[in-house]
Write a structure and sequence with these properties.
mainly alpha
């Protein structure tokens, strides 16, 4: 269950302030996604550097990297959607 206790009330805020709060929240979400994507990239690099790539006698079956790649791709799609929402909000603000 979601807890909206700390969520600001948009009803009492003027429309312009509400849009600014929404835009700030969208930018914050985009920043969090960027951080998560950097963490995933770092984890993938760390896993790649730990493998024995130079040895022909060792075979490493990496079942974690596809999960990282899938998570990264999903976050990338999410980031694109948030960016589009932010752009639409900006276009809506400019049309007033």
């Amino acid at each position: 269950m979601l807890n909206f206790a700390g969520t600001p009330s948009f009803i009492a805020a003027p429309e312009t302030d509400s849009r600014q709060l929404i835009a700030a929240d969208l930018r914050s979400l985009i920043a969090r996604i960027d951080i998560s994507m950097r963490l995933i990239d770092a984890a993938m690099e760390r896993d790649d550097s730990g493998s024995a790539a130079g040895s022909v006698d060792v075979v490493v079956l990496d079942d974690v990297t596809p999960r990282y790649a899938a998570a990264s791709a999903t976050l990338n799609v999410c980031r694109a959607g948030l960016g589009r929402a932010l752009q639409q909000l900006s276009e809506f603000s400019n049309s007033d």
